[in-house]
Amino acid sequence: MKKKCKKIKMMLAASLALFLTGCAASASQSKPPEPEKKKSQSNSQSESGETIHLRYGITGWKVYEALLKASGLDDFKGYDVEYFVFQGGNLCMEALASDQIDVTGTSEIPPIAASMAQGGGNFKIILVNSSSPQNQEVVALKTSGIKSITDLKGKRVGYIKNTTAHYFLNKMLKKEGLSWNDIKPVEITTADGVTALISGEIDAFASYGNSINAAKANGAVTIGNAVNILSGNFPFEISNTVLKDEKKTEAIADYYARVQKAYEWAETHLEEWAKIQAEPTGTTYEESLDLLKRTYEDRGYLYRSIEIDDKVIASEQNVADSFYELNVLDKNIDVSSFYDKSFYKKYEKARNNLK
Q: Region (Disordered): which ranges (predicted)?
């Protein structure tokens, strides 16, 4: 069993979740660790002759860089992009707060915690990516006899604190007339959660991304799926400093317009894109293609950048209210102050310029 658990941990350590939904929500005031950097060079300069430099904070692998290259849309005009890789969305938000980066993307959770930091986190959400929240599940071993969320009463349930897993597990319990107090919650990491489930240390596991794939590969089955619980909204944030910089915001608008067009390319090249993303996400080609197909079938698209409206803000508010209910937050938060709707016109203009 020890050898098997070690193998699973090594597999998970080599892979990173496809989505940003698992980003942690804690807002430590300590300085973020020095991130990994990677710059994509601009092919031309701006009209003034000066190249604008964008610092992009990301988690996981450099998915946009790979996608833009594959689709032939990485010929940036007048700007270049330097990628800073962090271990979680909370660290991206800390870097944004201290102006170490210009722009980032997270799940709905990190901005909530960041807003409680000194100065309100120094950020605004300017755009939202909509995608299907696949591989967000509660799983249990097939041999456990646990077949539904109602069977979790009195059971040891592993979850990753302050993440989407924490959020959707609570929602699933409430839907079945249970509360957080009806289970024995166990705070755990994604890798340790898989090994704990297989070894019988926990009875079920709420998680996301590749940890779900790993659990299923070792005899786990789905007892709860969060596709209809999570909004699939992933905010893009920029610093308040950058928001005042007209040239940088225009460059960011062009960048996101290219990402949107690149995903439209991927929708007609699913097999090619599946091959590209399989290795960096630690999945097989078949698993990668299956995930892409499920994502597309659920929404009718892989990715859409959407305008900020009341529905988007209400979704974020619902997350904040849930974490307050779970005593993760000391006070309830009005999330409407996070958003800036002025950027979307620049994004639309950039989209039109690419046609």
A: 27-48
Instruction: Please state the φ and ψ torsions of residue 329, each to the nearest 5 degrees.
Output: -105, 140
**Among 40-54, 179-193, 303-317, 338-352, which stretch is predicted with the lowest mean pLDDT?**
40-54
Q: d(Cα 44, Cα 75) in Å, to the nearest integer?
A: 8
Q: Would you say residue 161 has pLDDT above 70?
A: yes
Q: Kindly list the structural domains of the chain, giving each domain's residue range(s) and its CATH number in brackets, ordered by start.
A: 2-11+134-225 (3.40.190.10), 31-131+232-354 (3.40.190.10)
Q: Let me know the angle formed at the C-alpha of 149 by 143 and 154, rounded to the nearest 5 degrees.
A: 80
Helix (H), strand (E), coil (C) string for 141-202 = EHHHCCCCHHHHCCCEEEECCCCHHHHHHHHHHHHCCCCHHHCEEEECCHHHHHHHHHHCCC
293-297 contacts, C-beta under 8 A, 24 or more apart: 294/132, 294/134, 295/131, 295/132, 295/134, 296/132, 296/267, 296/270
pLDDT of residue 18: 35
SS3 1: coil
d(CA 106, CA 338): 13
Alpha-carbon gap, residue 74 to 68, rounded angstroms: 5
Average pLDDT over residues 109-131: 93
CB 176 within 8 A of CB 145: no
Instruction: Give the separation between CA 132 and CA 329, rounded to whole angstroms.
Output: 27
Tell me the whole-structure pTM to 2 decimals: 0.83
Two structure tokens written together for 191: 């890798």
pLDDT digit string (tens) for 5-27? 444 444 444 333 333 333 333 33
Please check the confidence at residue 277 and state whether its pLDDT lies above 70. Answer: yes
* Torsion region of 135: left, alpha or beta (phi above 0 gives left; psi -120 to 50 gives alpha): left
pLDDT bucket at 304, cuts 50 / 70 / 90: very high
Q: In sequence order, what are the beta bridge partners of 37?
A: 84
Instruction: Report the C-alpha gap between 266 and 260 in whole angstroms.
Output: 10
CA distances to 75, 130, 138, 195, 261 from 72, rounded to whole Å, are 7, 23, 38, 41, 10
Q: Which residues, 6+ apart, have CB-to-CB distance to 289 below 8 Å?
A: 270, 271, 274
- The mean predicted confidence, pLDDT, of the chain is 88
Q: To the nearest 5 percent, what fractions of the chain are helix, strand and coil?
A: 45, 20, 35
